[in-house]
What does this fold into?
Amino acid sequence: QVQLVESGGGLVQAGGSLRLSCVASGRFLSIVAIGWYRQAPGKQRELVATIGSAGSTNYADSVKGRFTISRDNAKNTVYLQMNSLKPEDTAVYYCNAVVRVVAKSVDVWGQGTQVTVSS
It folds into this structure.
C-alpha cells in the first residue's frame, strides 16, 4: 500500500511564503509523476503543479511565477514553494502521485493540508 503524507500548511499573511512537503511511502517501484492540487470551499479541486520523473513541470496559470515545484527522488518527496501568497490561494492542498507497482500504475492521494492566506 502506498501512502502520501503532506505537511507545511498553515496561516500566513498575503505576500508571505509557505513550503509544502509530501512524502511517499510504502511498496512501489517508482514515482511516475507527482504534484499538488487544491480545493477551496465550494469549488472543484484544481491542479496547482505537477512534476514528472524527468523533472518536467506543469503549473496552473494562476500560480506561475509564484509557486515552484521540486522533487527529491532519493527521499520520495515533492515540495511546493509558495511565494507572494494571495487570499485566493486559500484552500486545502492535496498531494497526488502516480506510482508504478509490480504490473500497473496506481493513482494515490494524500489527506490534504490547509493553507489559509489572510488579507
User: Anything to note?
Assistant: The two ends are 40 Å apart (CA to CA). The CA atoms of residues 17 and 83 lie 4 Å apart.
